[in-house]
User: Which sequence fits this backbone?
């Protein structure tokens, strides 16, 4: 297949030429003329014209006279038909679920965050999701036919081909056929992904499209990572590469869900903060992470000390990632962002002390800009990528 350079924003991305690339260029730069599309894609005018014809015929793209005129007759411009179809992006977290409906321009149409009522019971939890989805569709007067697909991000190990959630330790779910369950109900194409990888895709696509070597570290109850190498998400032989949460940083450390002791996520995640606080404060009340964060923000010294400690522990794992992969960019995301002002200095101090200077000099460290929505944006992007190719 012919490869071409497609300019998106200020970036040049080398990608295989297809309908989705054209669609994406129109989405990111539209209203745009066919001539401009031909110029930025490096493809022939005929190829561009054919793809555009297909997109218009199927109703995904419309012609408009909006846009800048260079004097005289206004050129016909192309833009996305945002209401042609909608996308559902679901992120199942450990205690809550995000359900977001996007239009084709990847604008949020509806968003709902619901607490998980009975965590151990995946059937009940998915019923909660279906209830919300059905409600949103009803409010917008939509049927399954109006949807392009459903993307589901989960905090666990998956078999992407089978659409199977193999193991989500922090949820306690094993071998759940997520894709089949959603497909049986809605009859739509479903994509299942690990939340950290979905978030990495979202952050790169929308915030850092120029960066080709990047690691996204998602810190929630556990820790997962998405790795971009030369502009491609690295999945490894099992499809689950990036489980840096289970690199061992202290062989005498606490026991992890995976069976080992001292995995990074046992010492640097939100679960660590909660467990440590409950232990040190001798609180006999079960506190949520949100309550502990609030206590810290109100000046609770014990909480603040634990935040610093977790910052140092996050730094230890990041040292390993930076030394091992030497990325251009390392993005820290996940719910830990809630306390980013309490951990940032400790993280940087650890990196300055322990990372190999040659790798540390070349890496930029950032907190996620998409924040808690990174994964749902990533899933929306993947659904468009998958579906538009075959319309
Ligand atoms: Zn582990």
Assistant:
């Amino acid at each position: 297949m012919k490869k071409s350079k497609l300019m998106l924003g200020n970036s040049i991305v080398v990608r295989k030429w297809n309908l989705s690339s054209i669609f994406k260029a129109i989405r990111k730069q539209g209203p745009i003329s066919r001539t401009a599309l031909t110029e930025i894609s490096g493809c022939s005018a005929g190829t561009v014209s054919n793809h555009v014809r297909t997109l218009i015929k199927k109703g995904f793209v419309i012609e408009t006279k909006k846009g800048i005129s260079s004097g005289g007759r206004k050129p016909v411009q192309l833009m996305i038909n945002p209401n042609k179809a909608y996308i559902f992006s679901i992120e199942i977290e450990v205690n809550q679920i995000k359900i977001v409906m996007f239009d084709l321009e990847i604008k949020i149409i509806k968003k709902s965050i619901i607490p998980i009522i009975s965590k151990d019971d995946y059937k009940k939890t998915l019923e909660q999701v279906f209830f919300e989805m059905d409600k949103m569709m009803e409010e917008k007067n939509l049927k399954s036919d109006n949807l392009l697909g459903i993307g589901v991000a989960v905090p666990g190990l998956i078999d992407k081909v089978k659409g199977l959630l193999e193991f989500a330790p922090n949820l306690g779910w094993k071998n759940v056929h997520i894709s089949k369950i959603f497909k049986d109900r809605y009859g739509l194409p479903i994509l299942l992904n690990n939340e950290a990888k979905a978030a990495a895709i979202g952050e790169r696509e929308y915030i850092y499209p120029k960066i080709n070597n990047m690691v996204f570290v998602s810190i929630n109850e556990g820790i997962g990572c998405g790795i971009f190498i030369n502009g491609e998400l690295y999945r490894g032989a099992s499809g689950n590469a990036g489980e840096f949460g289970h690199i061992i940083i202290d062989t005498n450390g606490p026991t992890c869900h995976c069976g080992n002791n001292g995995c990074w996520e046992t010492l640097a995640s939100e679960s660590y903060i909660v467990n440590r606080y409950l232990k040190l404060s001798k609180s006999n009340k079960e506190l949520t992470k949100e309550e502990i964060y609030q206590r810290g923000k109100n000046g609770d010294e014990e909480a603040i000390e634990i935040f610093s400690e977790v910052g140092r522990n996050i730094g230890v794992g990041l040292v390993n990632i930076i030394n091992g992969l030497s990325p251009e960019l390392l993005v820290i995301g996940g719910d830990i962002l809630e306390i980013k002002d309490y951990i940032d200095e400790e993280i940087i101090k650890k990196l300055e002390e322990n990372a190999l200077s040659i790798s540390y000099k070349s890496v930029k460290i950032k907190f996620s800009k998409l924040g808690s929505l990174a994964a749902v944006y990533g899933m929306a992007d993947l659904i468009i990528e998958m579906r538009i190719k075959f319309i």
User: Anything to note?
Assistant: The two ends are 18 Å apart (CA to CA). Residues 79 and 378 are 22 Å apart (CA to CA). The chain has a mean pLDDT of 92. The chain is about 40% helix and 25% strand.
